Hints:
There is one protein chain. By secondary structure, the protein is of the alpha/beta class. The chain folds into 3 domains: 17-67, lambda repressor-like DNA-binding domains (434 Repressor (Amino-terminal Domain), Orthogonal Bundle), CATH 1.10.260.40; 73-176 and 317-342, 3-Layer(aba) Sandwich (Rossmann fold), CATH 3.40.50; 179-314, Response regulator (Rossmann fold). The chain has 14 helices and 11 strands. The strands form 2 sheets. A 6-stranded mixed β-sheet has the order 7-6-8-9-10-11, sandwiched between helices. A 5-stranded parallel β-sheet has the order 2-1-3-4-5, with helices on both faces. Helix 1 (17-24) packs across helix 3 (43-56) and helix 11 packs parallel to helix 12. The chain starts with 16 loop residues before the first helix and ends in a 6-residue tail after the last strand. Residues 1-11 have low confidence and may be disordered.
Amino acid sequence: MSSDPVPDHPFRRRANINDVARDAGVSTATVDRVINRRGGVRLPTIHRVLSAADRLGYRLPPDLLASYQPPAMRLVFVLPEGHNRYLKLFADTISRSADEMAPYNVQCRVELVPSFNPKALADRLRTLASDCDGVAFMALEHPLVREAVTALHAEDVYVLTLITDLSNSPRATFVGMDNRAAGRTAGLLLGRFLGPPGATGHKVAMFAGSLSYRGHEEREMGFRHILAESFPHLQVIGLREGMDDPVRNYEQAKTLLEQHPDLVGLYNVGGASEGIARALTEAGRPQHVVFIGHGLTAETRALLVDGIIDAIINVAPETLMRSAARIFCNLRDGRPLATGIDPIPIGVFLRENLP
Length: 355
């Protein structure tokens, strides 16, 4: 049995450097460098040490906390470049966020990488370890990307995945909607809009940016599952990957509509819905095919108003940005990740409820 006094005893043993190091998950040498202000310690590590010392009641020099008033946390949002209008809107939102992010004491910038290229994404992530405190990015499911996240984690850089998650990686958390629930929501909407089985056809089709995005795969799974459960008369005739390119989506949708004149429904789990809408319009079938998409942008808003798209599933870019910033601050300050964070809502927009 330990000889230490019980925690509320007035003469309990005071915490020492070894206790602080163990609680913070660092070496005693690192704790010593922080306490004696010798430099060479990354800002997130300093915060872990100071938070551990505070929790344990370790007596710090009176002016130490004042000397460590943190500079703005440097955050990088890594997004794919390309034709996806929603991601462009997200990047613009972050770039204009200086005033809104000021209360969080963070500085945000956007880095663009080639779309659907895991090596380019992994290479860019690795370069960020030296000049940022936190990285939020859209993940591609690939070993190279997982290894890059592991390398950032080893350098004490906080990592969040955005919009689409990454399996088996040391990222801190995922920020985005429940993608499987989003796919189920799309399936429910499409099935209810189509109504009971009739003589007009039972075929529906899906488009994705790429199934290298775990989020797109999860949306597909959710969509297929609810159709099988609740609308078994609807037949999914396949999934086409359009790489979020409106031209590619247009060409594939045009061929699809030619091959399946009895098609009654479409679900685009990714971006570039405007390409699919163009094919529907040229075929004279926007009023005969229920079309569900993702991402409320100027383009999809106009398509909703015109009745070409029936519903858009959306998360406001501002919501993603603020949630990521708050989580980074919680990590920096040693608070539980979810402190002050609301669950990411799945927004459904029809032309009658557009903001």
